[in-house]
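Lab notebook, bench 4. The sequencing result for the construct came back, and we need a structural model before the next group meeting so we can plan mutations. Quick request posted to the team channel:

Model the 3D structure of this chain.
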Amino acid sequence: MKKLLTAILTIILLFPSLTADCSTSILDESISLASNKLIMDTVEIKKWNEQNENIYINTPISKFTIEFKIKSLSIIPSAKRYLKDSYGFFHEADMEYFKQLNENINYQAITDKENIVYGFIIKRTPLKTFPSHDEVFSSPSSVHDRFLESTLYPFEPVAIIHESRDGEWLFVKMYNYEGWVHKSNVAVTSLEILKLYEKNNNFIVITNPKTYMAYTSTELDMGCVFPLVKQHEKYFTVLCPKQNSDGKLYFSFGYVASEDANIGYLQYNMKNILIQAAKFIDEPYGWGGMNGYRDCSALVMDIFRSVGVKLKRNTDQQETMNPITRDVRNLSKQEKENILRAQPPGSLIFMDGHVMLYLGWIEEKGYILHDITIYYSEGVYVSANKVAITDIYIKNSVGYEYINLFTSFLFISK
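Done. Here's the predicted structure in C-alpha cell form:
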C-alpha cells in the first residue's frame, strides 16, 4: 500500500511539470521553425481591415435603423436567466425584470438623426447586451455572464448612437460590434479629432497580454494603441484619453514601460504571431472579457491586433472573413490531416463555436493553441479554463475528436 501511495503521489507531482514541458517544447519548436518573412505590409493589411465595418455612420440615420440595431442585440432570452445578487445568491429573472430593462432602453426617445456623436473609450469596459451592470447567467452553476457581449479597451473609437432613459448608458458602435457601455467610460469628441487619431502614424502598440499604465490602475491589453509623445530609455510617454466633468474628451500624459510595447505595429510574419500567442499560455479563460481576461475569439483577435490586423469579434464572423476560408467540414480525418501538414503555422482553425491558432505539424501530430474551458484527453476529463496547447485529437464532452469537428482553415494573407 505504501508503495502504491508513493507511486500515486509521484504521478500527481510530476504530471503538471511533464505537461508544461511538453507544451513548452512544442511551442519552442513551432517558433523556431516559423518564418519571419513578411506576410502582408501596411497597405495590404489596411485593405484586409476594410472588410470590417468602420465606426463612421452615414447620416441622416433613420429611427427605424437605430431601433433595428438595438433590437437585434437587446433580445429578451427565451431560456431562463438567473441574476446574481451582491451576496452571491441567484434569483430567476422574471418578465417584470426584462420589462424594466426594455423601458430603460428608451425606444420612445429614438428619432431620425442628422448627425452622430463620436467618442473614445477611456478604460477597459464591458460591452453589454442591455443597459445594465447586472450579471445574468444561464444557470446558478454557470460562470458566464450572458449580458456580456465583449470588452472594449482604452482609446477604442466608437460612434454613439443612443442614450438610455436613466442617462447612464450609451449604445455604441465599434469597428466590429455594437452594444451598451456605461457613459462614464466614454469621452465625447469631434469627428475631426477622431480622424486625426486614426491617421496618426506615430504610436505605440501594447505587445504584452496585460500591463498597466504607470502610476495608475488603467489596464492595458495586447493591441491597445496610444499616440507617442516621447521615447525614453525604459518607458514611453503617450497621450491618454480622459473624460471631463461634462463628458467631453481631454488628454493627459501616460507612461508605459518599454518592455510592454513597440513603436508601431509588429511586422506581420509567422514568427511574430507565434511569439505573441506564446505570451498568453496559462492565462485564465474570460468569457467576453470577464475578470480581466478573454475568450477564444478575443484571444486570436488580440494576437493579430498587435500586428495591425483587425478581426471580427465572434468565431462565426471571423470564419467568414475574406479571403474565403478553406472549407473542410465534409472532409475525412485523413484529408484534414493531409491539409494540415501543409497548412502554415499561425493559421486559424475553426469549429462550431470555437477558434484555435495552428502551431504546425510537429512530432507527427498537429498542435493548436487555444483558450479552452474543458476537454477530454486519453479518456481523462480536463478542466482547463485557460490558454493551453493541445494536439488536434483531444475530444469534446461527447467523445468526438476535435479534428473531426474542424469546419475551416484560414491563413490571413493578401
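Residues 1-21 have pLDDT under 50 and may be disordered.
Will bring this to the meeting.
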